[in-house]
Design a protein that fits this description.
By secondary structure, the protein is mainly alpha-helical. About 75% of the residues lie in helices and about 5% in strands. It contains 20 helices and three strands. A three-stranded antiparallel sheet has the order 2-1-3, with helices on one face.
Length: about 425
């Protein structure tokens, strides 16, 4: 009886092994013919029998499963993820047994998959289909984890697609990897066109130089992307209401790079998003010390000073911003707004006056003060429109001022300009 049981058990094990091989052969045949539906069906049947198989059979199974699920690039994102997982298992299994029958085949398939993902990612990017592009860049990274730049592209395209949860996951992974994102730009001077030209690789650039079509080759490294990554992580935290996480992210980054101007500005942006104007102002002042000739920093200090009820301080910052960048339209516009804010006090006093001779004289004085205020604002509004010709609000304000000053000719000119802006011309 005992011998019969052992024989019966052996027969059962043998039938399992036969079934495994049969299903794997069916899957392999279906894959070769491009019938991936049948291949997946055979794999599903084999999967129920694979647990007790040896590592060589398992390696074969996971190689076939990866191919079946990938389906020559026609699979869904979820299936592709499972395909990548299956292919990654092949190497681990073959390392255990010390035989590499499928490892090289997996490498070839992964290279093909990588090229396919990158082609689709770039095509989607050109078509501005950012979400699809992000998914394919992420898949490309999973195929070649040494190429962390693909994960960065996945994160940045996800941001453009407003897919913030995915982008946060990718950015956090990049941060944890210590990703810096330095790139080398290979360029040379195109002799015929008379201008610099970038190349995809050093080899292509050097070939052109040797061919005599280019000269003066240059290698240039791009800036680190660390600050941008931390900034985006922090801003996504803020948009999610995770303000404490945002501040912690910024503090960690600042501790590593206390003098990094981009990080100071990023932290300032996080605080202004959170409504912390005092902290924003402090950080912008810190940044201004490091970059005193930055017109935008001076402008931002002007904005927070004006909002904080310090018009004279704001005026000095706007004046410095304009001195540093005379074409800074927003600084000109805000100077005009700051000047015209003084009109309200004049109007209130005018409205409070009676009809006595003294009151009438004071009314006339205030009327002249108001005109002087208008005339002071005019050059800043005109400069605003010079550098931002379609600023409708500035144009309407200027038109109202010309009307109040009874400057009919200028009023008609600006009125025509407003009509052109509103009609889209």
């Amino acid at each position: 009886m005992k011998k019969q049981f052992i024989v019966a058990l052996a027969l059962i094990v043998g039938s399992f092994a036969f079934a495994q091989k049969s299903e794997l052969k069916s899957a392999e045949k279906a894959i070769k013919s491009g019938n991936f539906a049948d291949a997946k069906s055979a794999i599903l049947k084999a999967e129920a029998l694979i647990a007790g198989a040896d590592d060589k059979v398992k390696a074969n199974f996971y190689f076939l499963k990866g191919q079946a699920l990938y389906a020559n690039g026609t699979a869904t994102n979820a299936e592709i993820d499972k395909a990548i997982e299956s292919l990654d298992k092949v190497k681990d299994l073959e390392e255990k047994v010390g035989k590499y029958r499928y490892t090289s085949k997996v490498a070839e398939l992964k290279q093909s998959m990588l090229s396919n993902f990158l082609t689709k990612a770039n095509a989607s990017l050109q078509a501005k289909n950012y979400l699809v592009s992000s998914h394919d860049f992420e898949k490309a990274y999973r195929m070649s984890v040494k190429d962390t730049l693909y994960l960065y592209y996945a994160a940045s395209t996800a941001v453009t697609a407003k897919e913030f949860e995915s982008s946060l996951t990718y950015y956090e992974e990049l941060r944890d990897l210590g990703f810096k994102g330095y790139e080398t730009i290979y360029s040379a001077h195109n002799i015929e066109l008379g201008q610099s030209e970038d190349f995809d690789s050093r080899e292509l650039r050097d070939l052109s130089v040797r061919a005599g079509t280019h000269n003066a080759p240059k290698d240039a490294k791009t800036d680190s992307k660390s600050a941008e990554i931390i900034k985006n992580i922090a801003l996504i935290y803020v948009s999610n209401g995770d303000n404490e996480k945002a501040i912690t992210a910024m503090k960690d980054a600042r501790m590593e790079n206390p003098d990094d101007l981009d990080l100071i500005l990023t932290e300032a942006n996080v605080h202004i998003k959170m409504g912390n104007k005092d902290e924003f102002k402090r950080l912008i002042q810190e940044a201004t010390i490091k970059d005193p000739n930055n017109a935008e920093l001076q402008y931002n200090l002007g904005v927070v000073s004006a909002e904080g009820g310090e018009p004279e301080v704001a005026r000095k910052y706007y004046e410095k911003a304009i001195a540093l960048d005379p074409s800074y339209a927003d600084a000109h516009n805000n100077m005009a707004v700051l000047i015209l804010d003084g009109e309200q006090q004049i109007i209130e006093e005018m409205n409070s006056l009676g009809s006595s001779d003294a009151d009438n004289r004071r009314y006339d004085e205030l009327k002249e003060e108001r005109k002087l205020l208008y005339r002071e604002a005019i050059p800043f509004l005109e400069s605003t429109l010079k550098f931002k010709p379609k600023n409708l609000q500035a144009a309407k304000t200027l038109m109202n001022i010309y009307s109040a000053l009874e400057e009919t000719e200028k009023f008609n000119v600006i009125k025509a300009k407003i009509e052109a802006i509103e009609s889209g011309n």
